[in-house]
Structure formats: structure tokens, C-alpha cells
Amino acid sequence: MSQINAEQMARVKATAPVLAEHGPTITRHFYRRMFARHPELKNLFNQTHQTTGSQPETLARAVYAYAANIDNLGALGGAVSRIAHKHASLNIRPEHYPIVGENLLASIVEVLGDAVDADTLEAWRAAYGQLAQILIGVEANLYVGAAWTGFRPFKVTRKVRESDEITSFYLTPADGGAAPSFEPGQYVTVKRFVGDLGVDQPRQYSLSDAPHGKWLRISVKREAGKPEVIPAGKVSTLMHDGVEEGAIVEVTAPMGDFSLKRGVETPVVLLSGGVGLTPMVSMASALIADGSKREVRFVHACREGAVHAFRDWINDVAHRNANVTRTVLYERVGLNDRPGVDHDLEGRLTPAHIECYAFVPDADYYICGPIAFMKAQRDSLIALGVAPERVHTEIFGSGALE
User: Fold this and answer.
1) Are 283 and 368 within 8 A, CB to CB?
2) How far is Cα of residue 192 from the mean position of the Cα atoms in its chain?
3) Beta strand 216-221 with 248-251: parallel, antiparallel or unpaired?
4) Which of 12, 111, 244, 262 has the greatest number of C-beta atoms within 10 Å?
């Protein structure tokens, strides 16, 4: 792969506005083209996100961001690290990059036609080569540090219903070995064969317990979807309906750069929406297991009591540990929901709630939930004067915080 020079950087940067306009068209074409020529790669990509168009849109935004900052990659922040962790969790390898590059460059030409001259195309070839080299290097280090590479068989030793939507799966290595350590907040990829698609499908799930060597626990939300808008979750449905105790599932090593800072004394604020509480449960569990006396505020918002997972667990943690407080909001409060026990507040999490229940000077803030939820809470915290580097977010699926 060729090195990019200053003139080529300028050409790539100059095309950023074109990508902003035509990016989704290019990326949709790219995925269709690549899958037609390399159907085996469907196993690496969420095909539901292809159907909804969210994955092409996410890729278009990422390509635009790279083009706009080609001369100052530091402006991309932690994006490279986050992408590399996702890739390593999916077992993306160096040999995949030339395939992606070939089809992406061809798609640019096939969509934009005569608007792309030979020098501009060569500049993009060099730019892609630079990005591929960066990611391959970061991913190589992640593979070296991983507990294993590729997919490893795990046995489901327990299956526990946590709410109407969320079920936990306790996973132990099928070979009888110890469960690996990990950083609280990390995730694993689980692979299941989806019959109506005819391919394996990977899904990433946060680990929802402290690292202790006994098991890995994932807590999976059944994705119901929305008729004629978003298809129901294929893998989550298979997990809920087709994976019972004793089953074997294929799992990758823990990955992810959204993780709890340990070995410090700063307060911890955990902000979650819906199933976004799963990494927060892992973080809180680890703090308790470590015997930490750090102040912990656990603030969780969900639609209603029926979908409130880990309610009794967090209540018990807050009762037993004076340094832990919990605040729960239900968007809809039912007749049988007990104030102060099941929930504390009614409605959605607002900036006023953040200031009252979540704002702690010098704390580290961890946020996980739907994209709009995370953006709102991040913006509220920054408006209160929280330094951006103290606000940590986790994004699953296709999407980005703008």
C-alpha cells in the first residue's frame, strides 16, 4: 500500500464535501458490490443493518470524517481505537482490507463517474492504504493481548430472565478452563447461524458481571423491531427462543475501550438507558468486588417496570454499600410500581435531573443507551462544566454521537 503525500492529502480533503453529499449512495453501492463478489463476508456484517441502511450511513459518516481530517488524524479522537476494538472482536484480519479497499474505490468511481479523475482516485487509494495500515497495526496489538483469537466454544450454564425483554446467559468455556479476565465495560461477540439468511451473524453484547474467572455473563435484549421500519432482531430472538442451558455458543475474547478507570479514587457516575445498563452493572459489580469506597451514583432510565432489569440487584447493592446511590426513572409508572423501591421519578432523564442526581465534581461519567439518550446526557454534563475527557460513551450497532 502506497504512502500518502501532501498533495494527495489535499485532494482527499477537497473531496470531503462531495462525500457529505453522496456518501450514503457510495457506501450502499459498496456493500452491494462487495457482498456480490465476496458473499463469505456477509458473516462479518450485521445484515439487518444493511437492510435498514444504518450501516452504510455509518460508514459514510466515518469516511467523511476521515477525509475531512486527513491532515490531522488526532482530531478523530478515540474513533480509531473504537473501530479497531470492534474489528478485533469480529475477527477482522489484514487480508480483509484489500477486499474492502478494492470495492470501496470501485464504488466511488461507479457512483461519481467522470467527477473522479485518475489523480483523485490515486489519492484515495493512498488514503485508504494509510488508514488500513493504522487499523491493522492497532488490531495486531489487540490480538496479541487477547485471551484467545477467533471464536471459542462456550457452554450456557445458566439462563436467567431479568425482565420482559432482557435475559442473561452465563457462559463458561466448553473445554472446562477458567473464564477470561476483562475490563468492566467491555463486550464479547457471539455468533449464531441465521437460517433465513443462510449465514452466521455476529452480535456484540456487553459483559454484565464483574471479572472473576467463573463465567462470562451477557444480558441480551430481545429486539422486537418496528413493523415496516426496523426488522425484529434475528440473533436476539434466536438467543431468547433457541439457546437453552447446556447449549454451545461461539464467543470471541473480550474487547472494547469503554471501560472503568480502576486504581483511582474519583467518583463514578453510571448513566444508562434501557439495556445500556448492562456494562454499568459490570462496572458497579467490579467496584463492589474490589472493596472500593469511591462514590458511585447509578442513574438508570427505562420505559416501565416490566422492562427494568437488575432492579433487585441494584437495590441490594445500594442498601449494603453506603457509597452507592441509585436513581431510577420510569417513563410510564404503573399502578403496582413502588416509589422509592422500583423507581424514584417519572418521565425521561432531563438536564435538571442530571444536575440534581448525577452531577459530581471531578467524577468520571459513563453513559450507555440509545444514541439520542447518550447525546442528551453528554450535552447536559458538558453544559454543567464537566470536561469532555471525563465523559465516556459506548455505542453498539450502527450510529455515532454527533
Assistant:
1) no
2) 18
3) unpaired
4) 12
pTM of the complete model: 0.93
- Condensed to tens digits (0 to 9), the pLDDT of residues 33-56 reads 999 999 999 999 888 778 777 788
Q: Which residues of 280-318 are buried (b: 16+ CB within 10 A; e: fewer)?
A: bbbbbbbbbeeebebbbbbbbbbebbebbbbbeebeebb
Amino acid letter, residue 382:
I
Q: Where are the domains of the chain?
A: 6-145, 152-251, 268-394
Of 70-74, 142-146, 308-312, the least confident: 70-74
Could you read off the pLDDT of 142-160 as tens digits, one per residue?
999 999 999 999 999 999 9
Helix pair 96-112, 16-37: axis angle to 10 deg:
120
- The pLDDT value recorded for residue 398 is 46
State the Cα–Cα distance between residues 43 and 53, nearest whole angstrom. Answer: 17
- 31, 57, 66, 139: which one is catalytic? 139
Superfamily designation of domain 152-251: Translation factors (2.40.30.10)
pLDDT confidence band for 401 (50 / 70 / 90)? very low
**Grid coordinates representing 93?**
484480519
Nearest-angstrom CA–CA distance, 358 and 168 = 27
Active site residue 357: no
**In the CATH scheme, what is the code of domain 6-145?**
1.10.490.10
DSSP 134-191: HHHHHHHHHHHHSSSSS-EEEEEEEEEE-SSSEEEEEEEETTS-PPPP--TT-EEEEE
CATH code: domain 268-394 is: 3.40.50.80
What digits encode the pLDDT tens for the residues 326-348?
999 999 999 999 999 999 999 99
Backbone dihedral region of 369: left (phi > 0), alpha (psi from -120 to 50 degrees) or beta? left
Same CATH topology for 6-145 and 268-394: the answer is no
- Residue 365 designated active-site: no
Give the residue among 377, 372, 371 at the shortest CA–CA distance from 357: 377
In the structure grid, which three cell numbers stand for residue 254, read together? Answer: 473480550
